[in-house]
Specification:
The strands form two sheets. Strands 3-4-5-6-7-8-9-10 form an eight-stranded parallel β-barrel, surrounded by five helices. A two-stranded antiparallel ribbon has the order 1-2. It has one domain: TIM Barrel (Alpha-Beta Barrel), CATH 3.20.20.100. Helices cover 41% and strands 16% of the residues. The protein is globular, with a radius of gyration of 18 Å. It has twelve helices and ten strands.
């Protein structure tokens, strides 16, 4: 798999990372998760991204692959109380949350910890940034990042303290192409694409999804009406994923799944290479036309 240097960090990351949001369920079969993660590592995966609020995700990852810790970069996120009797975003919460993540993940450190979608107002206060910096100084965290969108993401790039930015970039949401990516490239910040295939919301067809993140994308996608989404489902995923990874400045795209073998299938969809410029431009121009009225 192609690897790209993640900004100014020392991490050479595969362009397709594993997202732990889909392996959160207490009813999940641990044997499936163990097979999923270990087979993906065998096949070249070297980025695993999760969060303290993804249910049992951190615990499953720690149980399944902590014995192979030197084979992958481990990213997590923090900020939400999720089991602590503390307020979201308090420095005490962040430090306790990171310590708990290390225990769950069965590791002494994470390669990257990210503030999980806090507001620009909270970022500007500075306490959350200082908390992450203290954990980095203590050797619990190697790099610090921000995960979020819009104005908060822009400020995270501008303030100059973060090593990485994880932000939404896909065929439905291309606002980062102007808002954050040019400055991030200039400052050599590592860019992690989240929701790189727009949650594949085209699979809902004409039935509106109930989850709000999926509904928003589904509604926008209906207005965009990309012709390629009428093709074979795997072809649609391939085009959407290759679109995201063809954007200059993107270093890795995080895709979640709970299905053994699916990571390898997604990897195979990238074998077609970068999206041809003409096709890329068609998708981007269509988005620009429709985005004005979104």
């Amino acid at each position: 798999m192609e690897k790209r240097q993640l900004g100014k960090t020392d991490m050479s990351v595969g362009v397709l990372g594993f997202g732990g949001s889909e392996i959160h369920d207490e009813h999940a079969e641990y044997q499936d998760i163990e097979h999923l993660l270990n087979s993906a590592l065998d096949d070249g995966l070297n980025v695993i991204d999760t969060a303290e609020c993804y249910g049992l995700s951190e615990e499953f990852i720690g149980r399944a692959v902590s014995h192979r810790r030197d084979e992958y970069y481990l990213f997590t996120k923090c900020g939400h109380a999720a089991g602590f009797d503390l307020s979201d975003w308090s420095p005490q919460l962040l430090e306790k949350s990171i310590e708990r993540s290390l225990q769950r993940l069965r590791t002494e450190y994470v390669d990257l910890v990210q503030l999980h979608s806090c507001s620009e107002e909270i970022l500007r206060q500075g306490d959350v940034i200082l908390a992450l910096q203290r954990m980095r100084e203590a050797g619990k965290v190697r790099y610090i990042g921000f995960s979020g969108d819009k104005g908060a993401a822009r400020y995270a790039v501008e303030c100059g303290v973060f090593d990485t930015l994880q932000t939404s970039i896909n065929i439905v949401d291309q606002s980062a192409l102007e808002l954050t990516l040019p400055l991030a490239r200039e400052r050599e910040i590592g860019i992690i694409a989240k929701r790189p295939i727009a949650n594949a919301v085209w699979r809902y067809g004409k039935t509106a999804p109930t989850w709000r993140f999926h509904y928003t994308y589904w509604e926008q996608l209906n207005r965009l009406a990309y012709p390629f989404l009428q093709s074979d489902p795997d072809q649609a995923v391939s085009i959407a994923l290759r679109f995201t990874l063809s954007i200059p400045g993107i270093h890795t795209a995080i895709l979640g799944t709970a299905r053994p073998g699916r990571w390898q299938q997604n990897k195979q969809l990238l074998e077609a290479g970068p999206l041809p410029k003409g096709q890329f431009d068609e998708i981007h121009i269509r988005w620009e036309e429709v985005a004005q009225s979104m």
